[in-house]
Amino acid sequence: MDCNGLFFHQRNSEIMRVVQNNNFGETRYGRLAKIYDFLDLLHFGHIGRRSSNFFLGQLPHVPQNPLIVGCGSGDFAVAYIQSENPNRLTINDLAPGMIELTKRRIGRLSWPGKLLVLQGDITQTAATEEYDFIALPYVLNMFSPRARIEFLKKIKSILKPEGVILVSDFARPRHPLFLLLHYLIWGLAVLFFWAAAGNKPNRLGEMPQHFHEAGLSMIQSKRFLGGLYAAVLLKK
After folding, report:
1. Residues whose CB is less than 8 angstroms from the CB of residue 100 and which lie 6 or more positions away in sequence, other chains included
2. Sign of the alpha-carbon dihedral angle for 200, 73, 210, 179
3. For the chain, which domains are there?
4. 7 pLDDT higher than 70
5. pLDDT computed for residue 36 by the predictor
6. Is the dihedral of CA 85, 86, 87, 89 positive or negative?
7. Can you tell me the distance from the alpha carbon of 185 to that of 187, in angstroms, rounded to the nearest whole number?
8. Which residues contact 43 (CB under 8 A, 6 or more apart)?
9. Most-buried pick from 1, 40, 119, 135 (CB within 10 A)?
């Protein structure tokens, strides 16, 4: 049932639509939804997925109320369900097209759990509940350093005291050869997403310092492909 476009039910799903906000930038990635997976291949997407999925199955505790911010085309959501088999899962994205992709992929699974969807700026939703696991797969590169810190603070505010945050994203490699490849991939990504979606990814810079300034501490971290990609587990 639709109630003025704000709330409606589907089988095994509860969809909540929230107003988008410009504080952290809107996205037009939805127009890329149909070719997103193909674009993913252009920058070693399988390595990116490996970094996102690395800590699944070895989290400090079994999450009871997990949230995926920036669900994209649904690869991580599917991997999470297959690994953790949660009773419920909340997904979030600014782009309706990406949410639809994720819902279709989850719908192909024989998963009996409950799917909740938050469409829009997660930082502007009413803090009616907290999450014990929050995943940020390739989200932080879309923020400037200062906005990134503020975003992480808001994510921290909806994290349970014992909860963990999983960050997976591009990283700055240390080896000169991989550093050159990093600049090449990054430059192509910035050019393409600016032209196609109006978004300009921001350099990640000193990510550990940004975590610290947001009041988060690292539990574990892992680098991939010479340091081009990284996965980090964080806590309050």
Report:
1. 33
2. negative
3. 7-19+45-169+205-235 (3.40.50.150)
4. no
5. 65
6. negative
7. 5
8. 185, 188, 189
9. 135
